[in-house]
Amino acid sequence: MSARPSTVPDRLTPAQDRILHKIANGLDTEATVLALNTTRGTVRVPVPSMSRWLGVSGRAALTALRDSAFSDVTQTVIPLRRTWNVEQAVGYLHSTSLAAPHLFMERRDNFESAVKTVLAEYAAGDVLTEDTAFAVLTAQRPSSREGR
Question: What phi and psi, each to the nearest 5 degrees, are found at residue 15?
Answer without folding.
Answer: -65, -45
